[in-house]
Amino acid sequence: MLGDFVDKQGSTTVKNMNLGSFTVNESQKIIFEDGIFGFEHIKEYYLIDANLAPFMLLQSNEDEAIGFIVCDPFLFFPDYEFDLSNEAKDAIGLQEAKDLLVLSIVTLSDKIEEVSVNLIGPIIINIKSHKAMQYIVNNPKYTTKHYLFPQGI
Question: What's residue 40's pLDDT?
């Protein structure tokens, strides 16, 4: 679904302090009206294919030190599911399920078996409006730390 954000018009450059510079355009911009938990003051990010497939970079437009590696949680956890509240749908202007993109924030580690993903706080994005929020899943089977490669590679 990242292809839905790709459009070469109106490009600009954003920087990530670890991964370098990326040319982005307005169609990749994501707006978090309430920010991401812990980064509530940052409202604008870009979703970037940083040649890290199946991972992407959610990079702050305002601070090159603030960027998150994200992934499609359903690639790693096909049984992952949650109900999206009407309040959340309204907050991002979501009217049709096909316009929803769900991403999870990845926590990196030097040890591959310790790389984890946050399933309790997914990023939900309306791919039409580009509005997003971090949503809290109210299900005790999910936590902030689900290992992607528990057996290593």
Answer: 95
User: Which two tokens mark 143?
Assistant: 């936590």
Q: Residue 4, SS3? A: helix
In this structure, the strands spanning 29-32 and 131-134 are parallel
Closest CA to 44 of 25, 23, 56, 59: 59
CA 139-89-67 angle, to 5 degrees, is 75
CA distance 102 to 122: 7
Q: Does domain 2-144 have CATH number 2.30.290.10?
A: yes
Distance between CA atoms of 80 and 141, rounded to whole angstroms?
Answer: 10
Burial 77-93 (b: 16+ CB within 10 A, else e): eeebebebeeeebebbe
Q: Please, are residues 39 and 30 in contact by the beta-carbon 8 Å criterion? A: no
Q: Is the pTM higher than 0.70?
A: yes
Reported confidence tier of residue 126, pLDDT bands at 50, 70, 90: very high
pLDDT in tens, 37-83: 999 999 999 999 988 889 999 999 999 999 999 999 999 999 999 99
